[in-house]
Fold this sequence. Notes:
By secondary structure, this protein is α+β, with helices and mostly antiparallel strands. It is 17% helix and 16% strand.
Amino acid sequence: MKVIDPAERLLKSLGVTEPKEIDLEAIAFDQGAEVRYCNLHGCEADIWPCMLICHTKQGRKWFTQAPMFHDRWFPQSELDAQTTAFDVVFGRSEGDGFPQIIGADAWFDRSEARQYEIFEQAKKWGMEKL
């Protein structure tokens, strides 16, 4: 059974079924919150250490990480078959709109990665054939 997180539960209660239906201002109004707009630089809005990784069938093309992400954690050059990204890159899936929990050792080859879980969200991007 899939566990529904609070954000997903809220979207479902508002009748949102597709990412394109998300109206941030309407959701904020419904929840009594105010949306403030400003320019951001890098990953300064994400309070979590995060990383953006681009993969093709030939391997990792590039990655970038939030400043608080420790340099010792470097993503593997090849995709692990356990990852959602593997399914996206090799055409089995278009990706998921919501992050999934996965063992960190699927993305990082450090021995201590086995002790951690991470949120993974994969999305097919770009128009070119990968």
